[in-house]
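Title: Prediction job returns without error message
Component: structure pipeline
Severity: low
Priority: P3
Assignee: unassigned

Description:
Job completed but the reporter wants confirmation the result is attached to the right record. Sequence as submitted:
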Amino acid sequence: MRLDANLFGFPPQKRKGRGRPPSKGKPLKKLSAVFKDRKVCWQRLRVGLWYGRTNRIVEITSGVALWYRGGVPPVPIRWLLVRDPTGEFQPQAFLATDLNARPSDILAWCDDAGDEADNDDPNNIQHDDLPVALVAHDLTDGA
């Protein structure tokens, strides 16, 4: 998922008038804008493993949205932005199709997938075998 992806709110439950009900709500900020917004509340979270280091403190913020691409029905997602408060590692964005997923769970799924995908054992779980869709993206590439 790109950081400039089209994110929308959910459509209103009740609609006015006749015609087809809306498939999405109002446009939301791009994830790159959320990352740069000084008003966003970041929470500190201790993770067991981050970039190969144990017991790391990261800052996270999360939300839900509809991810929309032309010609494809909108997909409900929980997005997660993660940054290193020391600035040592690049910020990343993740998403899950499970709207009830906790941010710590999303990070754990990504960490588990990365650990197992690095192993040459063909019996290991790969990224596409996870119970939810996950995507990581470098926030500093100017996308």
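Comment from assignee: result matches the submitted record. Strands lie at 6-8, 43-50, 53-69, 72-83, 92-96, 137-138.
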